[in-house]
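Bumping with the actual sequence this time:
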Amino acid sequence: MPIFQSACSLDCWDVCSMKVTVENNQVLQVTGDPRDRITQGFLCQKGGAIAERFQHPDRLKHPMKRHGESWETISWTQALDEISLKLKQLLADHGPTAMIHYSEGGHGGLSKNIDTAFFNALGGVTTPVGSLCLGAGMAAQKLDFGNSYSHPPEDLTNSHCLVLWGRNPAATNIHLVPFIKKLRERQVPVFLIDPVKSASASLADEHLALRPGSDGHLALALAKLLKEKQLLDMSYLRRHCQGAGAFLDQLEQFSMESLIVATGLNIDQVHRLADTYGQAPSAAIYLGYGVQRNRFGGRNVRLIDALGAITGNLGVPGGGVNYAHRHTSQWIDHDYLENTPATTGRTFPRSRFAAFINSHPSPAVQGILVTRGNPVVQLPDTNATLAAFRQIPFKVVIDHFMTDTAQQADYVLPATMILEESDVVFGSMWHNQLTWTEQAVTPPADVRHEFTIFHELARRLELKDFLDRYPNVDTYLSTAVAPLCRYLNIPPDDLKGKRITVPGRELPWDKGVFETQSGLFEFLKPEDPDAFFLASPHQPDYPYHLLTVHASSSLHTQHLRTQPAHQLPEVRIHPNTAETNGVIEGANLYLESANGSLAVRFRLDDRVRHDTMVMNQGSWLRQGAVNHLTDAGLSDLGMQAIYYDCRCRIVKTPAPQPVSF
């Protein structure tokens, strides 16, 4: 039986190498590649579900057109003819900015970027900017380092101290776990900083359950202690940093007591962390993607970055402040891939979708085409988002399943999955592995690759330059990876069907030269707006922090479609908090925020802080989407959503039925 090389295309840390066993065009098995340095022969729950998703009976297999509240199966010819006709009329009557192209990270393969290339060929449509996930941290590290690079996973063996700051590898980055276990075998101290005692606490020597959003307070407290204990690397600061003196001087304005109170920790815990981190020959911080999901998320990351600089833990084996890894992406021709125009169209902050639609922009939005995303439930403030989405006269969604967003569309087009196509997949969050996947099976007869869909639309719209520039998928991918091939001195054909390690950046910043304008690590400046603003507004009407975390079993909504509609989302609450509110195990009540309310079921869990509640994000509308509660505000940097700035209360009224669409 043939075995094909593939890779997981989910927007995840690990981007696993997969081996796909096929017989008679049927996927028999999808396994982790045992020879891969990252995957090491095993997959997570999500990776293991790829074959099930590929063959699921609910998968879309034909183009669909809405008729009132019902759906009609139509031919591709009819679908593309009608969509292109509506696009022509929209462009002629209102111009390209009246059309929104909404795309997310639901598929990590390069070939899917043909959607952006197509819309850029139209002359500049309206697109969202900013981030729902990691943008504030990326912007922070851009200011501090000039870019974001992580140490190779294997370099962790050189560490003498590891700080998992808001990262839960046991659930969301499981291929990091074997490297941590090797540290533990050598009795290297591991600290977990997380408001919740997550599954990763079993990997740590000590868990610091800080108050949500107080990461910057903790970083400042640690910096003060490191300074007081004379654990600073003054030589490194003089040679490789800008603004260190002003940063260290600014620490004096804060009392240690006020910082510790803000974190909700005790002073002994913070002393132990400062001593261990500051005295270690090399110490690594591994950041997760919760630290930055609040209004001061960028500031939080910058203050944590500063800890690496003041201790000289940058550019050394076993060190670093590891957040993302943009090395491989630098060897991709993004201008070609996305057909980058000389001028851009209209933009709006991604999390402010509803506010943008409701602002009555000129020209008004007349159409939207959604690819690789499910904005109706993944954007914050679901009630406002859904109402805004419904206002748009013409809506098209390309997807694998009839998602909540697809349910609101006029046309839904079925797309191929990773096992049915050849694509180039690589990670941008943790490692530098790249895979040119092999097509393992042929797709269902009436399912098409996005490249084909946009090619057919371009032909109908007579976009000759687009058609000439992007003749086929193979040319598209080969041209996109041409810079990488020149770097490696190989032809594109040598990449096909292979998993490679892209060399370079094995030890980020080892020369002490950064990609900032000064060439130095640049500290957060005291005069920066809000840089040292620490007050956390008290909200007596909504006393509890709500954290909406990622489940180990699903990436956002992608794996939760089969969850029963009557099954309420579960909220974890500390037993003492439950007692205060008269809540018992399994109670069905409301959570209410300033943005909306949600019927939930409570579970008592002493691993949660008294002032915090925790629930998994990703439920569909019919089950109770958590973003009914979240706010559509923006972070201080990177125009990022602030999901974790969600305050709520328990309302003891009969739980309503979840909304079903």
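The tokens above came from a reply further down the thread. Residues 64-125+329-501 form a domain with the Rossmann fold fold (CATH 3.40.50.740).
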